[in-house]
Amino acid sequence: MKITDYEKVQTLDSSNMVLIDGNNGTKTILVADFIKSLIGLISSQDFISGVNLSELTQINALTADDKLLIGTAEGNKAIGADDALFAMLDAFIPKEQRRMIYRGKNLGAVVTEEQKANIKNGTFKGFFLGDYWTIGSYTWRIVDFDYWYNCGDTAFTTPHLVIMPDKPLYNAQMNETNITTGGYTGSLMYTENLDQAKTLAASAFGDLILTHREYLTNAVTDGHASSGAWFDSTLDLPNEIMMYGCHVYAAMNNGTVIPTNYTIGKTQLALFTVVPKLISNRATFWLRDVVSSANFAYVHNYGNPTFYDASYSHGVRPVFAIG
After folding, report:
1. Per-residue pLDDT tens for 149-181?
2. In the prediction, which pLDDT does 278 show?
3. Which end of the chain is more exposed for a tag (fewer CB within 10 A), N or C?
């Protein structure tokens, strides 16, 4: 069928044809190829100027302000070109590609029943990287999809969105004195100072918050993490790898010292790969990596990775899964 027929967008499948007017005349292309072209337009930032598809004018001339005439169950409606683009992407792209396409849409002040269903069924319909809820005075943003899937000493196989607040929820200490004894799980942050964050997250997402298994440090020797164990995790501080894609200050293997870095937080969260400016947002906040006998890692508000005394009060910007 043709978009020019104004049929229902949701009835298109990959074998359908779309009629597009281009520089070399009007041509028919498969919907699947059309969607790939649209993804390319997003990626190249060429989705910038133009007119209406309903008039069969050149697709590369569209702007976000233009309107497309689309058939719906309630009849033909004119919608913004950018909304139409994401509606088509939402209908056709594999769910794994959602973590590669940044949208940054406000999803509302509450998680709706439809949204809950589309997280739980693993389709993630209606969600793209960077979309967010504004609940209370906090912005809770999608930073990845299925990040912990199939990880843990017990496999975590529940479809999930990974959520982080845009900025720290509050400030707190890692420990009352400048020690890292007991690693992350032995810290005051882990045992007490995350409680407020857990309460705030629960008030926003309730029973959507999931528990997965996480390998966390529980001992430090000569300034490096020397032991760890599997723990139930509902909400924790991120590590350096999740923010930057690699260890920066956390101890690394030097041929003699083999630190306990057996983490399943082993890749950079997708949001910070695609939109690295969102790593710091001019905010300073703790990470869970042990750097020395006195210091933990943190993200500086200047944007650089660094470390500081455990007794200092820095921001708490946790990460957790919902599903």
Report:
1. 999 999 999 999 999 999 999 999 999 999 999
2. 95
3. N
- Residues 246, 287, 153: CA angle, nearest 5 degrees: 75
Q: Give tens-digit pLDDT for 219-242.
A: 999 999 999 999 999 999 999 999
Length of the chain: 323
Q: Please name which of 199, 11, 197, 210 lies closest in space to residue 116, comparing C-alpha atoms.
A: 210
Q: Which two tokens stand for residue 262?
A: 């057996």
Model confidence, pTM:
0.80
312, 306 contact by CB (below 8 A): no
Mean pLDDT of 290-318: 97
